[in-house]
Give the backbone structure.
Amino acid sequence: MSDHKEVLFGLYDDEEIMMDAIRVANKEHLEIEDVFTPFPVHGLDHLLHLSESRLHIAGFVYGAMGTLTAFLFMSWVFTRDWPIIFGGKPYWSVPAFIPITFELTVLFASIGMVVSYYTVNGLAPGVENPYLHDRITDDKFCIAFKTNGASSQDVGKMKDFLSRTGASLIDSKII
Amino acid sequence: MDKFKFEGGQRTLFLGMIAVGLVSMVLTFFADDALHTRFWTNYLHNTIFFLGISFALLFAYCAFTLAYAGWFVNFKRIWEAYAQFLLVALILMLPLIGGLWMGYHHLYHWNVPEDVATDPVLYGKSGFLNKWWYTLGTLIVVGVWYLCASRIRSLSLAEDNGGGASNNFAEYASIKKWSGILMFFGAFSSAAMIWQWLMSLDAHWYSTMYAWYSTASFFVAGLSLTIITIIYLKGKGYLETLDGNHLHDIGKYLFAFSIFWTYLWFDQYMLIWYANNGEETVYFQTRIQQYPVLFYGNLLINFVMPFFVLMRNSVKRKHGIMMFAAIILFFGHWWDVFMMVKPGALHTAHEALAQGHGGGHGHEAGFTPGFTLPGLLEIGTFIGFLGLFMYVGFSHLSRAALTPANDPYLQESMHHEVI
C-alpha cells in the first residue's frame, strides 16, 4: 500500500482566500502537496514555486523528428525508390516537399506532446483517477497536504492552518 | 499620470538623423543615372515602408479594439502616436504623384503612354494601373486612414480629460465605431494601394499573395519598432504598469508574424513555381539569379533568425535579446521591401535608358550599387526617414499621458498575466 497517499485537505470558497492561505503556508514553511482549482488561477504557479514545464522542449524534439522524417522520406522516394517527373520539374523538388514537411512537423509535435503529457501524468482512456472531493471540479478550491508518516503533531498543525485560513471544509482521504 | 517628455537630446538626435538622410538623398540625386532611379527608388522604398508601418499598427490597434482586447491598453498610446505619421506619409507621397504627371521620375513602366499602347499586357492593366487611379487612390485612401487615426487619437485623449466611466464610456464606443470603419475600409484599400505603389514596379508581373505578404512585413516591422520603443521607455522609467507579461505577448506576436511572413514568402514562390506560371517566374528568376544575397539573406534574417532566437518561452521576457531581435527584424523587413522595390525599378530604368540611347537591350546583370545591395546612401536615407518617423511619433507621444487613465480595459491590462 506504499503507493497510496494519505491526504489531508481543505476546501475554500474563493480563490482569493485560497491564495492568501498559500501565502501563509509559504511563510510558515508548510509543505503543500498539491492545489486543485476548477479553473486556472493566475499567479498560482508562481506562489507554488512550480518550475517551467519541459513539455515544449519535448515538442521541439518531436517536431524536428517530423521534419527529418518527412523530408528524408520524400527525398528517398523521389530520387531513389520511385523517381517520377512532375511537370518537367527535377526529381528532387524541394519546394514541393515543404508543405508536407511542415504538416508532419506539426503532426509529430502535437501527437508526441499529447502522448508525453498523458504518460507523465498517468492519464489514459479508462484510467480511474482518484479525486479528493466532487466540488473541486465545480466551485471549490482545494489545498492538500500529504500525511503519510506525519506525526500527529504535524497533522494538527496542518489542520490548524486550514481552519485558521478560512477553509470551509476539512477532511482527509486515502487515495 | 506618467507623461512622456520629449527631451532636447532626443530631438537633436532625430534632427541629426533627418540631416543625415537629407545629405544622403542629395548625394544620391547627383551621383545617379539620367533618370535618378536610385534616388526615386530610395524615396519610394522608405516612404512606403514607414507608411506601411503606421498603417499596420493602426490596423492592429483597431482589430484589438474590436476584439475587446484589454492587454495592449497600457501601451496603446505608442500605436496611436505612430499612426499619426500617416499624414506625413501622405505629404511624402505627393512628389511621387507629381512625378507621374510631370515625368520627373521613371519608376513605373505603366506610366509610359507609348509602351502601354503597344504592349498588350500593360494595355490590359491600364484600367487600373494609370496615374488617375494612383493619384486619387493615394489621396483618398491614405486620407481616410489618417482621418480614422486622428479621430481615434483625439477620442482617446478626450477620454483622459473627464471622459471614461463618468461619460458612460461614450468615447470608447466612438473609438470602436471608427475602428470598424478603418477595418472595413483599410482591409480592401490597403491591398489595392500596395499593388499600385510597389507591385506595379514590376508592371508585367502580378501575385495574389503580394498584399498579404507586404502587410505581414509591415506588421512585423511595426511590432519590432513597438518593442524597441517599449524597452527604451521602460529604461527611461516610463510605462510602470507594463511588465514582462506584456512584452511576452508582443514577443509572441513578433514570433508568430515572422512565421506568418515566411508562410506567405514561401507561398508566393510556390504557387508560381508549382503552377508553371511561366510569365510570372520572371520576378523570382531575376531575384534569385541577379540578387542572390538580397533574396536568400531576406529569408535568413526574417525567418531563420527569429525562428530560433524567439522560440524559447523565457526569451520573450528578456529585454536584451528582445531588443536585439527587434532591431534585426526591423532592419530585415526594410531589407525585404528593398527587395520588392529595387529589381523591378532597375529593369524599367534600364529599358528606358537603352531606348533613349537608340537601341541595345538594357538587361545587364552585373553588380549595381544601391540596387544589388543597400549601399551607404540607402542606409543614410533609411536613417533620415527613421529620424522623421521617430520625431513625429515622439512629439505626438509627448502630448498626452502614456497610460490612458480612463480606458475601460486599463485594469485588465495592468493585471495581465501569461505564463
Summary: Chain A has a mean pLDDT of 91. The radius of gyration of chain A is 25 Å. The CA atoms of residues 34 and 151 of chain A lie 19 Å apart.
